[in-house]
Amino acid sequence: MMQENSASKSAMKYRFGVLRRLKESDKTPLKILLLAAIIGAAVGLVGSLFMLATTWINSYRVQSVGDLVVDKWLAVPAMFVISAILAMIGYYLVKRFSPESGGSGIPEIEGALQDLRPVRWWRVIPVKFIGGLGTLGSGMVLGREGPTVQLGANISQMFYDIFRLKDNESRHTLLAAGAAAGLSTAFNAPLAGILFIIEEMRPQFKYSLISIKAVFIGAVTATIVFRLINGEAALLNIGQFSSAPMNTLWLYLVLGLLFGIVGICFNRFLLFLQDKFLAFYQNKISRFVLMGGLIGGACGAIGVYTPEIVGGGYSVIHQMVANSFTVTLLLVFFALRFLTSTISFSSGAAGGIFSPLLALGTLFGGIYGYTVLEIFPEYHIEVGTFAIAGMGALFAATVRAPLTGIVLVLEMTSNYQLILPMIITCIGATMVAQFLGGRPLYSVLLEKTLQRSAKDKSAEQTATNTTN
Fold it and tell me: What would the pLDDT profile of 311-320 be if each residue is shown by its tens digit?
């Protein structure tokens, strides 16, 4: 009997000891992981609404002009006016209320992870959402993916402030989790969202067991919410292709080498145009807004007759894979989309470059595929496999995140059997881009942003000293 009482007391003592240790333990890691789950769900909801809203505005713009204007010659100026108004709204909101909302926003998040850029979520969230609806809805050659990443990180900062957290390490962890959730939502690709943080933001991301778990949780919960709203289908339903034969793998390496050159040209031309636009704007809001209206209106007007060279580019990808274009048309569309995408993005609009890059990669991959099919008819090549490989290769060459590009395209298309040619193409593109002295696009954009910010502060300080 005494032994039973002694055992019972020992068990009670053990239980109380566990409860006491649990009470006294640091709850911060658990709180961060729970917040990451909440943030992921919120980003999944906001990102889904952003996607649905941009799709609706684009469709309504095209349909309303088609219904109201019978004469096609009048449709062009009518579309120009409507698209220009939408774009000008987006440009005005960015310049007037939140300059950091211009562009994709990813360099801003990379800067925030280094404590070099502010995260003013109360400005960015409404301006990025509404301004993005204006610029993307006008038909400009922009993507919603970068803006969704910035929205995700800013939603993280919002929750960080609401719960009054003070730990800077927790802030960095939640920012990374929100950014991963944003990319996962934008592409319905959770693994790509995780890899984007680890690979592209590796200089800024502070790796720890808690931070990596938070990134995983944010990406997963965001994807779950996205799929509950939009379904589980892959974002690019372009059918299944057969595996690439072993004797054709060298062709994918050649394609990757070519994409390395294309990626270098794309980045340098985009940065060149950005400098020209900034020199023209002279920090004047009127010039910024009017230029936005001109570009947005032109894209809308072009889309009346040739929608293939404007817009995000997903429709072009579907048509290319369905063999809807000749090689000549592919060359024309590639050249024109190269211009429209670089002009749209470098002008400072609230929009990203991800989906235009995927479309450009598809077109160039298709051109290469048809050329190879003509030279080597005995290989029985499927042109679509080169188009899919091209999506990831151009992403890898410009952003310099080959692993993210590989996984992103495979998740978007569900063509996992093409993983080997994808790896070969993306690695080839990355190696050539690095050999030619190319640098990751977002890193260069962040450096230029920091330089402009320092210059502006210096000018303000000089003006203040002169006044005093």
Answer: 888 889 988 8
